[in-house]
Design goal:
Helices cover 15% and strands 23% of the residues. The chain is an alpha+beta fold. It has a single domain, classed as Cathepsin D, subunit A, domain 1, CATH 2.40.70. It has a six-stranded mixed beta sheet. A hairpin with a 4-residue loop joins strand 5 and strand 6. The termini are far apart.
Length: 158
């Protein structure tokens, strides 16, 4: 049995995790921070730039990227519970196989400042790509609608 309940980042507001953050691992070799910047530039939605929220928040348009058919989507993010904090445009890999949503250290530093996001404090940070996992998709009640001919998709709220 997992020791996730002992993890200081877990609380009763989330359902019991199948695995703890410490046991979680993802290998994505074809997308990295540089690729996120290029994707943002090519799609006129710059990665880690200042953002603004639209109303309604969904649908959001994404692209199907590369030979590995990666679902990439730009989302405007903000620190939870801090409505006056800066909104930032962040590119995510949509990964419904991932039970967790994760941000890279570089993305965390965009919110907290360089050097202020340490691995000890944010043990769920990963190195190379932001992941929009099944946890967030479930909580936000999102579905994916694909247009294969245009190599695009939308995240829609049910």
């Amino acid at each position: 049995m997992s020791d996730h309940n002992q993890n200081p980042s877990s609380d009763d507001s989330w359902q019991k995790l199948a695995i703890s953050y410490n046991e979680f691992d993802v290998l994505v070799t074809d997308i990295n921070e540089e690729e996120l910047v290029d994707i943002g530039h090519d799609n006129k939605f710059e990665h880690l730039s200042a953002g603004s929220f639209s109303s309604p928040a969904f649908p959001v348009n994404g692209i199907i990227h590369g030979l590995n058919i990666r679902y990439m989507v730009p989302l405007v993010c903000q620190l939870a519970g801090k409505p006056n904090s800066q909104a930032i445009n962040v590119w995510f890999l949509v990964d419904t196989n991932s039970p967790f949503t994760c941000l890279t250290m570089k993305s965390l530093e965009a919110f907290f400042g360089q050097g202020n996001a340490t691995r000890g404090l944010y043990s769920f940070a990963i190195q190379f790509v932001n992941i929009l996992g099944a946890d967030a998709m479930r909580k936000l009640e999102l579905s994916i609608v694909v247009d294969w001919k245009k190599e695009r998709f939308q995240l829609v709220n049910q």
